Amino acid sequence: MRALDGIDLHFHCGELTAVIGPNGGGKSTLLKALLGKLPYRGEIHFRPNGKDEKRPRIGYVPQRVNIPPDSPMSVLDLLSISRSRVPVWFRVPRHLRDKIQQSLEMVSAGNLINRRIGELSGGELQRVLLAGAIDPLPDILLLDEPVSGVDAKGLSLFYETICDLRRNFDISIILVSHDLAAIAPHADRMILINKKIIAEGKPSDVLADPACISIMGTFLFDAKQIPVDSRVHGGRP
Amino acid sequence: MRNALLAVLLVSPCFGIVGTMVVGNRMAFFSDVIGHSALTGIAIGVLIGVTDPRPVMILFAALLAVLINIFLEMTKAANDTVIGVFFAATIALGVAILSRGGSFNKFTVYLVGDILSVTPVEILFLSVMFLAVVLFWIFFGNAIALVAVDPALAYGKFSPLMVRTAFSILVAVVVILSIRWVGILIINSLFILPAAAARIRSRTLRAYLVRSVALSVVSGVSGLILSFYTGSACGATIVLCASALYGLVVGWNVIIGKFHS
Fold this sequence. Notes:
Shape of chain B: globular
CATH superfamily of chain B: ABC transporter involved in vitamin B12 uptake, BtuC
CATH topology of chain B: ABC transporter involved in vitamin B12 uptake, BtuC
Radius of gyration of chain B: 18 Å
Number of strands of chain A: 6
Oligomer: heterodimer
Largest sheet of chain A: 6 strands, mixed
CATH architecture of chain B: Orthogonal Bundle
Largest sheet of chain B: none
């Protein structure tokens, strides 16, 4: 039984692509296939400069991480483990600590370095996981429903951070979300998936597409009037 | 007495270290089965007629550890159900074998422990065990800590099943090498109590480890000394000291208002 069929997509560096669709439509399946967690037929090609092919480095921020509330691990511990084989039970070397502090500051989480991971709010945890995913800098950043369980302020901070990353580092970001209103102003491209690709293109076009409306429902705002984030296009046409 | 003290100084840090992840990975019931499996290991040793049952005990405990891990991975049943099944069968097997001929009494030393009879050769074994624990922590400590938070975080790096199974085998080795000194009845408490107390309000893994080892060593030494003067079993007295320390830690945190349920 195939969860997804006929997926033929191109992703570009410096582009934020939102993958939307109904529950069970295959959004997370697509991510898992890209990560190699699920078997698939087909090919994935990565050509960073247009010709030479190599395996992309993928940064992944999962949808949910279950942290035991009494876990004595600190944010520094967690990120050290993902970055290095140095045993965190004894000592974190100075240079590693500094690098981790830098990654955390890139995602506006510099103040969280000594916090217990079990005490972080949903939004704080998301930013910590993001810090872990972007260092070393990946070619492709995959975000799976990153804003479930996050408050509104955390959400806007998160999206700002993603946009900054995209602008500063020219990485390709693929974000799976069901939160259409929040992601639409920030995405360069949107793909609607329901077992196959239903619609693809600029967010305003996709959301106005009748196929999209019939699957996802109408919205409280007029899709054509989505505020275009001036930073999204950054002066480019 | 000096040998006993040396033994305690080698054994208690091992329990302090390994206990951090027995508690961290919610494996307290699992380590309980392994502890009790020593009885069955002895029984099998007696059955096949060996003089020193320890190799058989280690093999049996390690095999049990691997089987339980595989079973847990394959089944949808709850952890404690599965472990409960293995617990029941293992214990019953041990008791059934040992009670044949009505000669169970000579095995009670394993139930209660007898640290004062430890010899220098045995202390050598304990030193090797200590080294094994430290080496495991250097190479697999990060992995086991990550699995304790969320096995999904291990994706792409290593298999959580493999790491948990390797850790389970370490638990089996520590249990069997220590069982003669502290006794089957209380050995599991040595994994749990110092780590549980250390876990309260530790903010880093390093603090957690250091506190767990410190609490374990303090309970070990004070328990040994106390048992010497009161004449009670050393293992049990160590656990009573560890319990008292746990109570003190909790009490202190309640007083300063930082004990969260």
